[in-house]
Amino acid sequence: MAKIRADFNDTIGNTPLIKLKRASEITGCTILGKAEFLNPGGSVKDRAALAIITDAEDKGLLKPGGVIVEGTAGNTGIGLALVANARGYRTVIVMPETQSQEKKDMLRLVGADLRLVPALPYANPGNYVRYSETLAKELAANEPAGVLWANQFDNTANRMGHYRTTGPEIWEQTDGKVDAFTCAVGTGGTLAGIGLALKERNKDIRIVLADPMGSALYNYYANGELKAEGTSITEGIGQGRITQNLVGAPIDGQVQVTDEEALPVIFDLIKEEGLVVGGSSGINIMAAIKVARDLGPGHTVVTVLCDYGTRYQSKLFNPAFLREKNLPVPEWLA
Ligand code: PMP
C-alpha cells in the first residue's frame, strides 16, 4: 500500500478485524468484528457511498457540479457528502427527523442540504426514501449539471461495493477460516455483498440475517411472510420490504435480536474492551453470539461494527432517554 493516500476517499475500506473478547469467551468461538466505524465518515456506509458515486461516474450519470440526492437514516448521507465534497458535487439529504441529532449535526457540518421529514412507512409517498426520489426529479429541472438519485436501497452498486471490498477483506483477514457471517440489514448491501463474496470462496460459510425488532425480514426469511413485530431504538437497520440489494442474497438462516439483548453488549464493550459502537453493532454482536452458540465451540463467526457510538450520545448513551424507553442504564452513566 502506498504510504501517501491520493485523497481521503482513498482511506475508505481496509478496516481491521477485531477479536471481541467477551463474546468469544462466552461462546468458546472466535467472534470477530469488522471495524467499519474507522471509515472516514465513521460508518460502514462510506463504502456504499463511494461505490454508488464511482458507479454513477463510470456510467456518465454524474457531471462536475452535479447534485446527489438521497434518502438516508444519516450514515449514507454522511458518506455521500464527504465523497461529493472531495469530487466537486453537492448533496441534498432527506432524513427522518427521528434519527440522532449527532448525524444531523454532522450532515450540516459537511455542508449537505439537509431536509428532515416525518418518519412515515414506505407505503406513504412522504416516506424519506420515496420523497428523496420525488425531490431528485423536481431538482433535475433546474440543475444543468444533473441530479443523481443515489437510491442506496435498490441500486445494486451498493452491494457490489461490499462484494468487491468488504467480503474479500474478511476472507483474507481470516485466511479463509470463517464459518459464519452475520449482520443486520438496512439496505441489505452489506449482508448481500459480503455473503456473495464469501459464498463464492466457500459455499459452506453460513450467512445469517440479524434482525432487530420492528423489522419484517426475520419472518420473511423464516416463513415467507413480510411481517414485523415490536420496535427498536437502533438506527439504520430493519426493513419492511425486499430491496433490490437483498434479491438473491445467499441467506442460510436468521436470528432476531431485541434491544434488551443488544444494549448490555455494547455497554460491556465500552467498559471491558474500550470499544464504543452504535446500536446496530450491538444487534450484530448479539446475533453473532447466537450463531456461535448454534454452531458450537471452536468456530469463527464474523460480524460488522457499523458505526461509532458517539453518533448516538444523545440517545443510546443518554440515561434520561434510556429510562424513558424502559431500557437498562449503564451504572457509570446513571
Ligand atoms: N448500521 C447502521 C448504523 C447503518 O446506518 C446502516 C445503513 N443504513 C446499517 C447498519 C445497514 O447496512 P446496509 O444498508 O448495508 O444493510
Brief account:
With 334 residues, the chain is of the alpha/beta class. Helices cover 39% and strands 16% of the residues.
Which keywords apply here?
10 strands, four-stranded parallel beta sheet, 2 domains, 334 residues, Rossmann fold, six-stranded mixed beta sheet, binds 4'-deoxy-4'-aminopyridoxal-5'-phosphate
Q: Average pLDDT value?
A: 97
Return the string of H and E elements. EHEHEHEHEHEHHEHEHEHHEH
Q: Which ranges are low-confidence, i.e. pLDDT below 50, for 5 or more consecutive residues? A: none
Query: What does the largest sheet look like?
Result: 6 strands, mixed
Strand order of the largest sheet: 1-2-10-7-8-9
CA-to-CA gap between the ends? 45 Å
Q: What is the general shape?
A: globular
The count of DSSP E runs of length 2 or more, i.e. the number of strands, is 10
Organism: Magnetospirillum gryphiswaldense (strain DSM 6361 / JCM 21280 / NBRC 15271 / MSR-1)
EC number: 2.5.1.47
Pfam family, one: PALP
Enzyme class: transferase
